[in-house]
Each structure stands twice: as structure tokens, then as C-alpha cells.
Amino acid sequence: MHEKVMRYIEKPFIKNILIMGSGTAGGQIITILMAPLITRLYGPEAYGLMGIFISFCYLIIPIAALTYPSAIVMAKDDTEAQGLANISLRVCIVVSLVTSAILLAFSSFIGHLFHLEKITSLFYLIPFVILFSGYLQIIEQWLIRKEQFLVSARVEVLQALVLQGSRLGIGFFQPTSFVLIFSWSLGQAFKAALLNLFSHYAGYNRISFSGETVATLKGIAKKYKDFPLFRAPQILLYSISESLPLLLLASFFGPASAGFYSIGRTVLNVPANLIKQSIGDVFYQRFTVAAKNDEDLPLLLVKASFLLGVVGLLPFGAIMFFGPYIFVLVFGEEWIVAGEYGRWIALWLFFGLMAKPSTVALPVLSAQAFHLIYTVVMVFIWATGLSIGAYIFESEQITIAIFGISGALMNIALMIITIYICRSFSRQGR
């Protein structure tokens, strides 16, 4: 029995998942252990302001390089992958500069609209966060291409230790939203620097950002044009949809309400990220290879989705049934509302977890146009539901409930449609 288990673990796909999972788990365990202390120091309003700031950043970060880094894993050789890295970095610099210009013109208006006057001056950190996050995407995708999952795992643990430790230490003397926001912003740069250092030490940081001619880069950019044309708009829309609840809560009910949502989402992101990131990155590489080798893609997709459902049932199920009690026990009485929010967020994230393999499979299936259309529909449904909750019912609870239920239904639909696309893709391949 022991020998069978060891042979199963030694399979590359399972081994890589365990490596990525160990790193992500280490980082999330550190976050969980320090969260009860940190939340008691800073309070809902500080968390709400940080959550809104991060939401603004994540409207742009996923498309900072127009998703060209995602194509690095799929490139036919390292020369082409380095060309994609070069294109990604150049695009990211331009996006960062454009963001700076927009903030110079509209930062005061944005601060007033979302009651963020306390942190308006910190908006100017956003272009730097975008730049470092874009570079981080490039390094991460290069390491995935090289199957150097151990490097990423080590960095996850070290970054979490430094980030949460600094928040806790400074929070005893200065528990403000400024500390939370500034530490998170520096954390992005710190993680990029660590990945660069560790990958260079391991001998896999061979990305060259120079040498290719403009004509060569144009050819590579054209070859992978589906990414900026379809994947980037889809991810932008998805980022907007994910930020909608927090921004709407801040606008209608104030930063404290946004803080309850933010901590609820943060806590539930622990199991979600632990499972999704480790399996998602490995599955993307595995699915790409399977598509090239004409393997049974629908079966691979169904197995991965089912596995994620089984793994996620316990943590998300616990929050769905006992959310308020768990939040009060762990974070204190003032966070009971976050537990109520957490029930509906858990429902959405559970099915989002199961749909993760479908999401990462779509680029490989050349179905990014569909993913864009799907995301447009999803944003429309979420925006309509959130507006009904805020404008008609004027209830935070109903607003979050509509968001969670509609998100769960949309993820179920995504899985079903992606399996159908897989079957069509496999038939065309044969």
C-alpha cells in the first residue's frame, strides 16, 4: 500500500501539485494564524479602505501586460517565450504610465465617490504596484514553463511571513489603513524581487528583455493576438465584476461595510487560493501538454473539477452553515456581519473553485472569444443583481446574497459549457 501511494505521489502532475500546495499552504497558514490578532488591531474600517484600494489595483493588474505573460507557457520554444516576456514588460510600462496620468486627473473625484478621502494620497502607489505586479506575472509564468514550482512555493511562504509579521508588529503602535495598504503594495514588489532572486539562484532566470528586433516582437505579438483581443478584455470584465460588491458597499453603506466584505473574502480566499493556485498553475501546464498529445481532455477536465469539489466541500461548507459563529470566535464580536457575508461568498467561491480547471483550459482550447462573451453576461447579471439589492431592497445582506447565488450559478454553467467545448476540440484534433 505504501509503495502504491509513493508511486502515485511521484507522478509529475501530482508531485507538482503537492509542491505548489505546500508553498501556498505555508503562506495561508501564516495568514490564518496572524489574522485574529491583526483584525483586532485594525478594525473593519481600516480593512474596508485597504480592500477598496486593492480592488482598484486589481482592476488593472491582471491586464497590466494585456495577458501576454499567460502565453509564455504555451510558446513553442524559449526564444519565443523570451519575446513574449519582452512584449509583456513593454506593455506593462505603458499601462503604468497611462494609469499615472488618469490618477493625476481623477484621484480627487474617485476619493470623494467612494468615501476614500483618508487614502487619496496613496492612490499614487497604484502605478508602481502595477509595474511590479506585471513583472511578477512574467517571472511566475516563466517558472511554470520550466516546471520550477518549488521556487514559487518557497517565495509564497517567505512573503506571507514578512507581510503579516510587519502588519502585526507595526499594528501595535500604528493600526491604520495606511499601514495595511502600504505593506500590501510593498509586498508585491517584495515577492517579485524574491522570485527573481530565487529563480536566478536556481539557474532558471534566463529571460532576456533585449535582443529581439521590433519586427520579431511584432510577429510574436501577432501570433498570440488572442490574448490581448479576447483574454485581456475578459479578465478586465471579471476583475470589475469581482470588485463590484466591495465598491458598491463602500459607496452606499460606507467603508465599514466594505471592511466586513473584505475580511470575509480574505478569509475564504485562504482555502480558495490554497487549492486553486497550486492546482491551477500545474493544471494549466498539464492541460497544455495533454492538448498537444491528443489526450482525453474532457475526462481530464471532469476529474480535476470533481477533485476540487471534494477538497473544497469541508472548508466552504463549514462557512456556509456556521459562518457567523466562526467569525465571532476567531476575529471578535465586531466581525459577526462578516460571517453573514461569508456564507454567500463561500457559496460563490466553492463553485468558482470547481470551475478553475475550466477557466485555465479555455485559452488552450482556443475558446477565449467564448470566455469574453461569458464574462460580459456574468458582469451584466452581477451588476443587475447588486443594483437591485442596493437600490430596491437597500439591504447589505440581500445584496451579498444575490451576488453569491448568481456567481454560483454562473460557475456551474461555465463548467458545463467548457466540457462541451473540450469534446468538440478533441473531435477536431482526431
Automatic annotation (TrEMBL):
Localization annotation: Cell membrane
One Pfam entry name: Polysacc_synt_3
Alphabetized InterPro entries for the sequence: Poly_Biosynth_Transport
Residues passing through the membrane, by range: 12-35, 47-68, 89-110, 122-144, 306-332, 344-365, 372-392, 398-422
Key words, A-Z: Cell membrane, Membrane, Transmembrane, Transmembrane helix
Cellular component GO terms, alphabetical: plasma membrane
Origin superkingdom: Bacteria
Annotated membrane topology: Multi-pass membrane protein
PANTHER family hit by this protein: POLYSACCHARIDE BIOSYNTHESIS PROTEIN (PTHR30250:SF28), PST FAMILY PREDICTED COLANIC ACID TRANSPORTER (PTHR30250)
Protein name, UniProt field: O-antigen/teichoic acid export membrane protein
Provenance organism: Planomicrobium soli
